Amino acid sequence: MTGKNEKNRIEKITKTLVPYLVVATISFFFVYIFFVLSGFNAISIFKVLMEESIGGVTEVQRTLLKMTPLLFTGLAGILTYNFGLWNIGMQGQFTMGVIMSGIAALFFKLPPFLMIPLVLIFGFLGGAIWGSLAGFLRTKIGVELLLSTLLLSFISGYLLKYCVHFPLRDPEAFNPVSKFFPKSAVLPKLLPNARIHIGIIIGIILAFLVLEILVKRTHFGYKARIVGTSPEAAKFGGINANRIVVILMFLSGGIAGLGGAIEATGVWAYLNEGMTSNYGWLGIAIGLTGMKLGKGTAIGIILVALFFGILKTGSRAIHSVYGVSMGVVFIFQAIILISVLLIPILQEILPQVKN
């Protein structure tokens, strides 16, 4: 019996580790060939990527700053993906969080213990309203979430540009930006003289609250799971599916919006049209990877966000140090992303191949 248990344990470890090793080998090979064909020293590029993302205290802080908004947008995505809803509009919800938190920071004058919660609440509500609007369109007139969340993301992007060019523009600035937020609206740092702020702590706590408690241990999570997996059973059980959809989109959009508020008040402290980067779009990949590879757990989504933070920070360093065009960098990121998404597929295929 002991020998059988040992054999089962080894098979379980093998099933877990082998796909990672296979994918790591394949991705390294293709990335290496890609950079060589592009005329770059692949080994040097890999070295720079690691050194500039996790090579020291400053680099780690830079990576954690990139990880923080990715954690919020990835969490917003995985919340809906767990229940069969496809919110791909985290970019728009994140942007609305940026705009609304900026409005609160620029127009209210309060002490820090009131100002910081206020700007974060405004950011949450900005994203939540944007998300629930898509949920309302789905439940009332049948517009698919894939379409509505995507289109709303473009609208919010243009809305941010409008705000920094016209009503919120600093008249004394040459570029289209807002005035600086008051110090009372800026998130405090984790440590003196550190760049990393308390937003990452908020994100980690929220990940556990959402994925380990709301999704798995509440009556709402149970009903939402029924709506996602079996709409007919939900209808038979008297569950208001439309209400569940709108609430989920409200919460998902709110989480992305909160991430936008934390980015605006923790990193920038003013509004500009390029500050949202592609955090929301990457949130789609992070949410899907966290669901498939991280098994929908809080630890899983945190690690996936960290991985993408490393990738985003290191990729930017490759661009600045070696002059690699952003097009090449994006292809590099895509190869890594596709490789990561292959892992759960291999975990299912390899045992069948063995049999």
UniProtKB/TrEMBL annotation:
Topological relation to the membrane, as annotated = Multi-pass membrane protein
Chain segments annotated as transmembrane: 20-43, 63-81, 88-108, 114-134, 141-160, 196-215, 244-269, 281-309, 321-346
Keyword flag Iron: no
The record's subcellular location field reads: Cell membrane
Show the InterPro entries listed in the entry: ABC_transp_permease
Keywords from UniProt, A to Z, are: Cell membrane, Membrane, Transmembrane, Transmembrane helix
**One GO cellular component, as annotated:** plasma membrane
Recorded superkingdom: Archaea
Per UniProt, what is one GO molecular function of this protein?
transmembrane transporter activity
**Quick one: signal sequence residues?**
none
Q: Which PANTHER family match?
A: ABC TRANSPORTER, PERMEASE PROTEIN, GUANOSINE ABC TRANSPORTER PERMEASE PROTEIN NUPP
Recorded protein name is ABC transporter permease
Organism the protein comes from:
candidate division MSBL1 archaeon SCGC-AAA259I09
Organism lineage string:
Archaea, Methanobacteriati, Methanobacteriota, candidate division MSBL1
